[in-house]
Amino acid sequence: MKILIPGMDGYIGWALALKQLKIGNQVCGIDNFSRRRNVEEMGSYSALPILEMKERLKFLRETFGEKVSFFQGDLLDVDFTNDIVSKVKPDVIVHLAEQPSAPYSMIDQEHNIYTQKNNVIGTLNLLHSVQKHVPKAHLIKLGTMGEYGYDPGLDIPEGFFEVEFRGKKATVPFPKIAGSWYHWTKVHDSNNIMFACKLWNLKSTDIMQGIVYGTKTEQTIDENYHTRFDFDEAFGTSMNRFCAQAVIGYPLTIHGSGGQTRGFLALSDSIQCISLLIDNPPDDGEYRVVNQFDEQYSVLEIAKKIQNIGNQKGLNVEIKSKENPRLESEKHYYNADHEKLKNLGFKRTREIDDEIGIMIEHLLPYKDRIEERKEVIVKNIKWQK
Amino acid sequence: MKILIPGMDGYIGWALALKQLKIGNQVCGIDNFSRRRNVEEMGSYSALPILEMKERLKFLRETFGEKVSFFQGDLLDVDFTNDIVSKVKPDVIVHLAEQPSAPYSMIDQEHNIYTQKNNVIGTLNLLHSVQKHVPKAHLIKLGTMGEYGYDPGLDIPEGFFEVEFRGKKATVPFPKIAGSWYHWTKVHDSNNIMFACKLWNLKSTDIMQGIVYGTKTEQTIDENYHTRFDFDEAFGTSMNRFCAQAVIGYPLTIHGSGGQTRGFLALSDSIQCISLLIDNPPDDGEYRVVNQFDEQYSVLEIAKKIQNIGNQKGLNVEIKSKENPRLESEKHYYNADHEKLKNLGFKRTREIDDEIGIMIEHLLPYKDRIEERKEVIVKNIKWQK
């Protein structure tokens, strides 16, 4: 199969590209390197050193030859996007080319508008290219569990649910009540994709993904193949940030009481899930929503796990509460379905505690790099100024 | 009160400005004149001749002096928008500055992207300006009943409904299942506005408006004060198009069986409703949704009304079915609430049959203008190419 990966230079994109090449598929990447620039803007970098794309490709070509290709460009560029999609004619597109940070989108008007344009218009351009050039391709799009919001007061199904209202029943989209400008762009995308599937008979899987953590997959162990690992407030996910904090003896900073419950998923399992979705496309015209996470935990539970495991390794890990800069419930009912991927064969690679141990061990040699930029871990980007 | 009206040059914007001036409020208009350009792009113009804004303002200033002001510019221009909002410091903003045509958004990729950028980013810029400069102002935003979709299989409440799912109850946004790229931009806007109200404690009324019809209000009778009246496929609403067709002896073109049921509202009543909302703002932080229409009819029922009334006036009005270019149900359950505006005091100005008679009489002297551009009435902009 030929897999097009917009966002191939990112945390998941790079690991996914390696996995797909490993199993024998052709991979064509696209990236505009905005993630590198935006992390730099935050004053940070990847804790694990990563190579420039030119060098990354050099190593890949040694092993995979013509099976890998890459184009630098932007989905906002209509001609570029049409050009690549029409030339590559992918069987599957895994669209990861979005601005992925909630705090980044909340910095100010400029960052909000940038996020909305980049995500919503980029996805629309891609949809139009698919319709024109590869209407039978399977578009896999990375959304977030945050689209549903974390406190809807109801169980969260996978995309749709049956409701009864004044004596009539219908199956309708589950309400979306996102909590940041970034999260709303993912909702707008989902809505646009749902419509495109109906309008043009496209097939798409919209992934409502939980919080991903981890430093590596089987394919990214060697330093030349590292995927990025962010630990700054904007681009580091909570679990990744906590591990970076543990390694440098910086207290794990939970927001408020840390009672925010979320779905979590290891990086290797995110790649496993996406690969399962690639192998099991929906029908023509189907808009399929999957909730992609392994287990639910509160942020405090995660912090305590990292504290325990870090302390077992001789680190002195503290947990410290700070004022919550976000607009979110710190104690809430949370129970989200996640059966579809299990039904496709998803099984976790390893237990979360083991993965945390691996992360800490992997990060320890890079302690100085994290230490050097430790001021980026807590920048206090406030939702309400 | 000081009312800012982005989109003042449009069909509703102009009529609303005149009404608000008439009752003694200050009005500041904004427009980039995109409606005039976009209608021209469709090969059309307003059936009722309208003046250029410069001349419109000359007449207004004779009567209202300093109470009226106007700025040419675009909400996509961040500095312009911030500048006007901070200088004018409006009490109320009635945001009508959107690309309002579903068919126009469906022409091709370029028209879709234009619509999404114009509407979504324009509204976001306005929200940021309100937050920065007039956080206590009441933002009234024009949405559409089409945000809910026309065949959800459930009664349609005003914005929110209580659902029970697996034994838990919650009040959540009613699902949005729009049927064109344009309609989806209104959904994206609604979602962004709902979030802004929560985030910044803004107050906003989001109007889910039905199909507006009519050639005039009490304030737009004189030719110098005409508001525009579009009859082309993209910018003319179904009822307005039918009346234009009746006047020139062009069969009323219903799509398919004409069983599409919609909410309808006369222009003068749209202005009445917006004026009621201006006078009755929601609370700080409240995101209020109102369904703004008077009566529900199927498109065929509307066509028959116009046929009967036209024939009574000696016109020879035929109804002709054409292939439906849209993606929509032609027979469906439809029952939408519209109580909130009645509770604020809304009463229809006159019966729909009387308004149709007035429209036809008003259009008859401009028969030649419509005749000259009759090829724009059916352009056959298809949803699915």
Automatic annotation (TrEMBL), chains A, B:
Top-level taxonomic group: Archaea
Listed Pfam families: Epimerase (PF01370)
Annotated InterPro entries: Epimerase_deHydtase, NAD(P)-bd_dom_sf, UDP-sulfoquinovose_synthase
SUPFAM superfamilies tied to this protein: NAD(P)-binding Rossmann-fold domains
Stretches assigned to the NAD-dependent epimerase/dehydratase domain: 3-156
Gene3D superfamilies reported for this sequence: NAD(P)-binding Rossmann-like Domain (3.40.50.720), UDP-galactose 4-epimerase, domain 1 (3.90.25.10)
Family recorded in the similarity comment: Belongs to the NAD(P)-dependent epimerase/dehydratase family.
Xref: NCBIfam families: UDPsulfquin_syn
PANTHER family for the chain: DTDP-D-GLUCOSE 4,6-DEHYDRATASE-RELATED
Record-given protein name: Epimerase
Provenance organism: Candidatus Nitrosopumilus sediminis
Phylogenetic placement of the source organism: Archaea, Nitrososphaerota, Nitrososphaeria, Nitrosopumilales, Nitrosopumilaceae
